[in-house]
UniProtKB/TrEMBL annotation:
GO terms for molecular function: transaminase activity. Keywords: Aminotransferase, Pyridoxal phosphate, Transferase. It comes from Candidatus Pinguicoccus supinus. Residues 3-67 form the Aminotransferase class V domain. This is Aminotransferase class V-fold PLP-dependent enzyme. InterPro entries: Aminotrans_V_dom, PyrdxlP-dep_Trfase_major. It comes from the Bacteria.
Amino acid sequence: MLPHRVGGGIVKNFLLNKKIFLKKNFNSYESGTPNIESCINLGIIYEYLNFLGFNKIHSSNQKSIFYFKK
């Protein structure tokens, strides 16, 4: 039985002419869920960096680089 939709780790390889090669042993017959947790975490990290201020982060990095180059 072939899956209804492909993706989510069941695709082994594909060609530009839309030929898809599936893995031999895949665990489900549906494409799966995208990595939502990482998207949410990326948004939280961006908000935190905005809270700190990118200029402050940049100047801190520059000070560290200057210190370690001594």
